Amino acid sequence: MIINKLDNVEVSLENGHKYALCDIKKGENIIKYGNPIGHATEDILAGAHVHTHNMKTNLSGSLEYKYSGGMEFSYSEGERTFLGYVRENGDVGIRNEIWIIPTVGCVNKIAEELARRTGAFAFTHPFGCSQLGDDQKMTQLILRGLVNHPNAGGVLVLGLGCENNNIDVFKSVLGEYNGKRVKFLSCQDSENELENGAKIIDELKKYVSEFEKKPVPVSKLRVGLKCGGSDGYSGISANPLLGRFSDALTKMGGSVILTEVPEMFGAEHLIMERAENEDVFERCVALINNFKDYYVSHGQVVYENPSPGNKAGGITTLEEKSLGCVQKCGSCVVRDVLFLGDTVKKNGLSLLNGPGNDIVAITNLTASGAHLILFTTGRGTPLGAPVPTVKVATNESLAKRKGGWIDFDASPTLAGVDLDSEFFDYVLDVASGKETKNEQNNYREISIFKDGVTL
After folding, report:
1. For residue 396, with 0-12 CB atoms within 10 Å meaning exposed, 13-18 middle and 19 or more buried, which class applies?
2. For 164-188, how does the pLDDT look when each residue is reduced to its tens digit (9 = 90+)?
3. DSSP letter at 342?
4. Model's pTM, two decimal places?
């Protein structure tokens, strides 16, 4: 399959790998998606396999970026709606659940037992104590985002009592909260934490029962975008499908969030040129450069594509991965740049700081306020976030083999089938209550980005 008329390689519909369309000389650029994805390290004959044995990345070192003008954002709400739960503060949730958020890993098992007894959902993690400075702040900000998430109609914040991030300290980060919706329990101060925790959750159940679904404009919907375990089809089938969805949603006033900053490397120029204004452009530049500096500060190669699964699936360089990855946000105007712990404030496309690591990325997206996550995969994964996590298969084989994981098969687009309307309707069904596979399987978990000292 030829993706762009400028390409000098094509993608096999049998295995997702690249093959030369013409003779390519040593040092000549390999072109895919109409852009260079690396260069030939030897002469390559027409029809030959193009991969790690005969091509290499073009990327190295820091780059300079120049602002060339902003793009205007506009939308028209239209008539599309989904069924959501309107909260007392005016925010909207697409689920009406009770979440248990531990302040510290020491109470994880208590949280899990309370969840087992009550039907609430516990999101455990190993942090909250013996952390210092910005590292502890990161934990607190992510937990704050989870506590404030509108998909949770009620929240029990479960503490131990002696941890750095004890309940009183965490409250200072949490700020204002609705006392009917958010409850606290310090286990060291409770004679029977399981009994008392269950009583609190019963109170929360009564509170959340007051909320009923009602039609909500699609402009209220916030969708996270993620790809994991990519293959050679990711940038041809599933990611472009998400891109067309993103364009359609934002034109109706909805919001999409793109993260995985290292998987923008090599394609960041395509995103920066869509910045709404110079301030957003400069924050895009800072987002990219700061993450490159993070790599360098730890002695790591900035432009390495570390995943063996990506390579096995036919992806050779980071440019190739990135050019496919950024297609998830279509042609949307970049309206905001969020750093870890920030929540979505603007309609349209927001970029979110954070790594490509799947479980960290879906946690970051959830904490930023995403109601649901669209997660494309060419290799397959059971992973799910606290919010509905729609797995979109890039190829038919995966969709058939892992039906217990996959929610939507994007592979028919490889044969020219238009799935755009069907996919948009499916996402609104999920927003209205249709369960995803991760929800059916109760595959929900979090992981918090860590970069600091543990005592």
Report:
1. middle
2. 999 999 999 999 999 999 999 999 9
3. -
4. 0.95
